[in-house]
Amino acid sequence: MKELFYTVNLINHEYWVAVYIGRDFKKVEKRILKHFEGNRPDDMEMENFRGKCWMRSGFAPFIFVNTKYCKTNIKICATLAHEAFHAIEHIFETIGESYKGEIPAHSISIILKEFEYYKNK
Length: 121
Ligand SMILES: [Zn+2]
Fold this sequence. Notes:
Elements: E1 4-10, E2 15-22, H1 25-35, E3 51-54, E4 62-66, H2 73-94, H3 102-119
Parallel strand pairs: 2-4
Antiparallel strand pairs: 1-2, 3-4
Helix pairs in contact: 2-3
The structure holds zinc ion (ZN).
Residues 82, 86 line the site of zinc ion.
C-alpha cells in the first residue's frame, strides 16, 4: 500500500479533516506540525498505534492510519472509520450539534469513500 494524504470537506469548507495513511513517521510528524501551524500536539506517539486522531481547538482534525499494522484495505478502513468517528465527534462538539443521525453517519462514509478514490488515483 502506497502512502496517501488527502483532505475531506464536511458540512462546508470551514469543517474538514486531514487523513494520512502510511508508516513514514518523520513525514507524518512534519505534516502534523504544518497542519497545526507549529503547535505540537501533546501526544505525538504514533508508532505503536493502528491509528490516531489528533484534535486541537480551532484546527481540523488530523487522522493517521498506520500501515505498519493495517496491511489490508479492510484493516485500513476499520481503523479509518474508528478515527473518523473521533474526528466527527470533535467537529460536531465544536459546532454544538449532536452527532446522532444521518449527517455524522454520511460524514464518516465520505471519509472512507475518499480513501477509495485516492487509493485508485
Ligand atoms: Zn479511539
